[in-house]
Amino acid sequence: MKKNIDTEEAMIRWDSFAESYAANHSDQGDAHKEVLLNPTLFSLMGTVEHKKVLDAGCGEGYFSRLLAKSDAIVTAVDYSQKMIELAKHRTPDEFSIKYYQGNCEDLHFLVDSRFDIIVSNMVMQDLENVEKAFREMYRLLVDGGTFVFSILHPCFVTPESGWVKDDYGNKLHWKVDQYFYEGVYEQRFGDEEKVLLFHRTLTTYINTLLTIGFRLEKITEPKPTQAMLKKYPSFEEDFRCADFVVFKLKK
Ligand SMILES: C[S@@+](CC[C@H](N)C(=O)[O-])C[C@H]1O[C@@H](n2cnc3c(N)ncnc32)[C@H](O)[C@@H]1O
After folding, report:
1. Residue 218's pLDDT is what?
2. Closest Cα to atom 26 of ligand 1
3. Which end of the chain is more exposed for a tag (fewer CB within 10 A), N or C?
4. Which atom of ligand 1 is found nearest the CA of 14?
5. What is the distance in A from the centroid of ligand 1 to the CA of 229?
6. How far apart are CA 51 and CA 119, in angstroms?
7. Taking residues 32-56, what's their average pLDDT?
8. String of b and e for 39-76 (b: at least 16 CB within 10 Å)?
9. How many of the other CB atoms lie within 10 Å of CB of 93?
10. Confidence check: pLDDT of 5 > 70
11. pLDDT given for residue 103 in this prediction
């Protein structure tokens, strides 16, 4: 396992992966986002109408567009220049989303206390210095503002996790190893591309947030609804093990 690879290296990979990542995203994102993450994030954010919302790590921008459709006033940042180009290209003019290329670990070009809500969907496990990023989120929120973010569930998705299968390919159980390892690892997306992820324990995430001054209001481990299972029966396996955890915090 390689070490000392920082956010800049991770970003080179996101830039080269951006086109195929975007090709896999429609107006609801991908299936995991449609089934598990979008309903959870919207439910935790509460009403977004006329609220100033930052989408931190917006990727190709599908979630920013959902927010704009719900009448939020949306600013979106991503460190990948390529992702920002794709997001702008995919956004109709009437949405007036402000897109910026920027590193969530240092968003100095955005003034303090600027947002009512910050949402970050599957980004905080992709950057090297999560404490710096959380401090930026805290700085950018108004007092009483809400920070909602989703990550791969760090208790189940680790550098050495995956299904153990029998000789016929049946999934016997989910294996977890290297939970206490904190640092970079590679994860394969599709056939070829590998992105860099930064594993850290649940303790590290929660204690870092509390030290900065956030108040933890709710945690959700999303499960599919019956309606979503009818549309995507393969999500039945999400009752065996959680893919994601979503946090709601208050400044
Ligand atoms: C898994 S994708 C999620 C994108 C989007 N939120 C979504 O749900 O489709 C992770 C995104 O985080 C961005 N990213 C990674 N590190 C970042 C950083 N330090 N600052 C800003 N964006 C970052 C990547 O460029 C990529 O677009």
Report:
1. 98
2. 59
3. N
4. 25
5. 27
6. 12
7. 98
8. bbbbebbeebeebbbbbbbbbbbbbbbbbbebebbbbb
9. 5
10. no
11. 96
Q: Which residue has the higher pLDDT, 16 or 69?
A: 69
User: Which residue from 41, 78, 97, 131 has its CB within 8 A of the most atoms of ligand 1, so it is best to mutate?
Assistant: 78
| Cβ contact 60:87 at 8 Å | yes
pLDDT above 90 for 123: yes
- Asked which of 21-25, 42-46, 98-102, 151-155 is least confident by mean pLDDT, the reply is 21-25
Domains contained in the chain, CATH given: 7-152+201-250 (3.40.50.150)
What does the DSSP 8-state code read for residue 93? G
Which residues line ligand 1 at a C-beta cut-off of 6 Å? 7, 10, 14, 29, 57-59, 62-63, 77-80, 83, 103-105, 121-123, 126-127
Q: With H, G, I as helix, E, B as strand and everything else as coil, classify residue 125.
A: coil
Element (H, E) at 151: strand 141-152
Distance separating alpha carbons of residues 107 and 68, to the nearest angstrom: 22
Strand partners, 219: 247
Its pTM surpasses 0.85: yes
Give tens-digit pLDDT for 93-119.
999 899 999 999 999 999 999 999 999
